[in-house]
Design brief:
Layout (H helix, E strand, L loop, with lengths): L1 H22 L6 H17 L3 H16 L1 H11 L1 H20 L7 H4 L7 H4 L5 H24 L1
Helix pairs in contact: 1-2, 2-3, 5-8
Amino acid sequence: MVIFIGSIVFLFILISYVYSAFYHDLFGVTSELAALVTFLLGVIVMSGEMQVAIFIGVLLTIMLAYKSRIAPIIEKIGGVEITNTLKFAVIALIILPLLPDQKYAIRDLIVFLPEGRFLTTPFFNPYSIWQFVVVMSGVSYIGYVLSKIY
């Protein structure tokens, strides 16, 4: 049902963009992307993730309110720096919270192995390993930013 309604919303957004672009010579996609994100926020709320939807909604509102002030800064910074910042944000803010914070044994990962003390001792924690990746990426990112500043 969500895919059907999402397709209809996307169709209306596409029609709105084509109308704005060809009849009024307005080629920005800010309003269209905001409408699409608003629909996705509704889907997130209906799936029970209210806090995530609130966070994204507030972030979207701030970005739209300060769009005219942010645009010159983004042009000054450059595309490579923004891409690197987004990569770090994905590593730290999206992937890390999704990983389970529990220890696994080899037997949990490879189920066809026989029982044994070594195979059933938990030692592998995906969250802790990725947390180390985030720390190392953060150090690298800070070094990158400092090298660009100086």
